[in-house]
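Why does residue order matter? Because the sequence determines the fold. Keep that principle in mind as you read this record.
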Amino acid sequence: MGAAVADDVLHFLDPAHDTISSLALRYAVPPNALRTKNNLYADHLLAARKTILIPGEFYKGGVSLSPQPIDGEEEEIRKSKIRRWMVICKVSDYDIALLYLSQTKYDLDAAVEAYLADEQWERDHPIQTSSKSKPAPRRTRRALGL
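Structure:
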């Protein structure tokens, strides 16, 4: 059996010092592996990020070399999953994201799958209006006294 791949490491970015090149040197990870893992198509996109994932298949240290954020690493990971869920599902309501992610214990793939299944169910079962309801009366000029 081959060696198990280490978990990815979350690095908290310092915009004044961190670049793709500096991170690649610090973690001994190829720059293209950093770009691919984080969906960065250009190096300047790093400036818009708070965190970056260091691929575990290249970095075996297992510990982030960045200072810890105020909220803590677990909270940053949770917030990152919420943002990613909102983008993937195209939902801007933070509370909806929290609902789906908390139900799946913050398993991003399971939360997305649950949301998509709910969306499909809603499409398959549209709300039926009562056939007995009457359409709203037309307001003609005569009815309005004009």
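The chain is about 40% helix and 5% strand.
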